[in-house]
Design brief:
It is built from eleven helices and twelve strands. The chain is an alpha+beta fold and 316 residues long. It has a five-stranded antiparallel β-sheet.
């Protein structure tokens, strides 16, 4: 029997207490004979299920045995379907899984779960942009992660240097529509942008992964390292408080109000990798913003201003 039908059958018995072969066939969209064979296969495999013959009979879990797959409260079920629901719009597999999960829930939870699944959709495409598609390599790499198989990568780094390496794939992260592969290498953990992977070939070699590895913890460390590189240069600026939200769209977490001043102005601390990166973002503000320090950012702004004046003054 298929593993997904096995899980669905167990969930249904847990949710309802007892199911007949006909009910199971209707829920799983198979024949009654197939449903009966599945139930018999569960019992033969050692799953504690047994039949009760006669009127009102059916198949039940021995002693009300439970799995850990659907012991959800009403609020937990709603939270799960709010999360999974949007994925069903773009994935046939997710839609099928969602349908089976809804059927397996206790009847009192079903209406709210179905409403939660339909309450939200995600459109990842920004205004004016074309539809974004998940890189084809993601599926291949996800399979390698799940099956614990090494992958031979052909990778182009930020300097456009192409290399080949055999890696242990540990996990994938989608951040702001850019996919990253976290993997083990001869030099320890490395992070690869999937859009820079020129080729990926799974091997039959078993991948190794640290026993204490968790993707969430590892990604937090990666983010911390990147943010430290992004904040190597700090600048202090003066600006009207009402414009701070605009600055935050450019500098994100590297924009902090340092002090509130007179006349509705504030002193703000900003950070970026280099003085030029800060100056490029601030140049368009003109005299609306004043850079107090450092001198390196002031010098970059003066240079940008001189370049613009030299190009456009003569013609006007």
């Amino acid at each position: 029997m298929r593993a997904d039908r096995l899980v669905a059958a167990l969930l249904l018995m847990q949710a309802r207490g007892r199911v007949t072969a006909a009910e199971l066939a209707d829920e799983l969209e198979v024949s009654v004979a197939t449903a009966r064979r599945d139930l018999e296969a569960l019992s033969a495999a050692g799953i504690p299920v047994y039949p009760q013959p006669g009127r009102g009979g059916g198949w039940s879990l021995v002693g009300g045995a439970r799995t850990d797959l659907s012991g959800l409260s009403a609020t937990e079920a709603q939270a799960l379907f709010l999360l999974v629901g949007p994925a069903a719009a773009v994935s046939g597999e997710a839609k099928a899984a969602l349908r089976k999960l809804v059927r397996a829930l206790p009847r009192t939870f079903r209406a709210d779960a179905e409403a939660a699944a339909d309450a939200t959709m995600i459109d990842p495409t920004r205004w004016g942009e074309r539809d974004r598609r998940r890189p084809e390599l993601v599926d291949l790499l996800q399979t390698a992660v799940i099956r614990r198989r090494k992958v031979r990568l052909t990778y182009t780094d930020s300097a456009r240097e192409r290399t080949e390496r055999l890696v242990d794939p540990w996990g994938l992260v989608d951040k702001d529509d850019i996919w990253y592969l976290l993997a083990g290498t001869e030099r320890g953990r490395r992070t690869f942008r999937v859009d820079r992977i020129v080729g990926a070939e799974p091997t039959d070699q078993r991948a190794e992964r640290p026993d204490d590895f968790t993707l969430t913890t590892a990604w937090r460390q990666v983010v911390g390292e990147v943010e430290r590189r992004r904040s190597r240069t700090w600048a202090t600026v003066l600006i009207e408080a009402r414009f701070v939200p605009v600055l935050r769209t450019h500098f994100g977490r590297h924009c902090h109000i340092d002090a509130e001043l007179d006349h509705g102005r504030v002193r703000v601390r900003l950070a970026a990798p280099t003085p030029l990166d800060i100056a490029r973002h601030l140049a368009g503000w003109g005299v609306m913003i004043e850079v107090v320090e450092p001198r390196s950012v002031q010098a970059e702004l003066a240079r940008i201003g001189a370049e613009l004046a030299g190009r456009y003054t003569g013609g006007y």
